[in-house]
Amino acid sequence: KKAMSNQQQPANIIFESSKHLESGEPEPQLKPNLLTLYSMRFCPFAQRTRLVLQHKQLPHQIVNVNLVRKPDWFLAKSSSGKVPALIEPAGWTLIESLVTCDYLAGLSLSL
Questions:
Q1: How many domains does the chain have?
Q2: Which of 4, 41, 50, 107 is packed most tightly, with the most Cβ within 10 A?
Q3: Tell me: the pLDDT tens digits for 47-98?
Q4: Residue 85 belongs to some domain of the structure
């Protein structure tokens, strides 16, 4: 199968970084009041959270980070340095796939 290009992304993904950002790179400009998922494209744990976001059709943005050379701004958001890290609109950070998925399961489109 052919991988999805950025033009074929589902409509509920507002932004997804095209590469895995690493140490020394600036933090991307993100839309406020939107779920933000810090991820690594090939991480099965982060994929679990991506699947729940897609299933629930929740608008969100995804920032892919290099897990070997983590940016400082990512470590400020996820002190453990793990993905998935989900930042919800009020600013709370949720880490670990089971925690993020449980949280998302309780959300509705009215977020």
A1: 1
A2: 50
A3: 999 999 999 999 999 999 999 999 999 999 998 999 999 999 898 999 999 9
A4: yes
Length of the chain: 111
pLDDT for res 93: 94
* Domain membership of residue 53 as a residue range: 13-22+30-106
Q: CA separation (Å) from 64 to 41, 50, 108?
A: 6, 12, 24
User: Is residue 5, in this structure, part of any structural domain at all?
Assistant: no
Residue 70 lies in a domain: yes
Token pair belonging to 90: 């009020």
Kindly indicate the confidence band of residue 26, based on its pLDDT and cuts at 50, 70 and 90: very high
CATH of the domain at 46: 3.40.30.10
Any idea which residues carry the catalytic annotation? 43
In a domain, residue 3? The reply is no
Annotate 31-59 with DSSP letters as a single string.
Answer: -SSSEEEEE-TT-HHHHHHHHHHHHHT--
- pTM here is 0.85
